[in-house]
Write a structure and sequence with these properties.
The chain is mostly helical and 103 residues long. The protein is 56% helix and 0% strand. It has a domain of 63 residues. 13% of the residues are buried.
Length: 103
Amino acid sequence: MTGAPRPRHDPVVPDPVPLLVLALPVLVTRFPWMFAGPGLDADSFRVLEVAEIIQKTGRYEVSRFPGYPVYEYLVAMVYVPGQYGLTNAISAAATSLCLYFSP
């Protein structure tokens, strides 16, 4: 069977501009508190505890059910006890991504 060649389908690459438009205000509004600490929510302290456990043992533990392994591993990769800037930046970036992918 001959005919026109099938069109080549390129992978869909999302436009980065909407992400930047959403991410920039989120990051700017959270920057004053980025280095202030984990806050008062007990969940944030549990995430930091699990990050230390992952760093020391390499074993995953749930900070809160049902578990958030991607976030908890990301925090474990950057967490330095007493320094909260990178862990809070990860939270702000996750917020931006949620805004970008929400309908």
